[in-house]
Amino acid sequence: MNNHDNNYDNITVPENTEKLLMDSMDMAVRRKKQIKRRRTVSCLAAALAVVIAVPNLSPTAARAMESVPVLGNLFSILTVRDYQDESDRYNADVKIPYISASDEISQEEADKINAEIEATCTRLIDEYETNKKELAGEGYEDLVIKSEIASDSKDFFTLKLILYTGAGSGYQQDDYYTIDKKTGKQVLLGDILSGNYIDTINSEIIRQMKEQMKSDSSAVYFIGPDMDGFVSISSDQDFYFDKDGNLVICFDEYEVAPGSMGCVSFTIDRNMLDMNIRK
Question: What is this structure's pTM?
Answer without folding.
Answer: 0.75
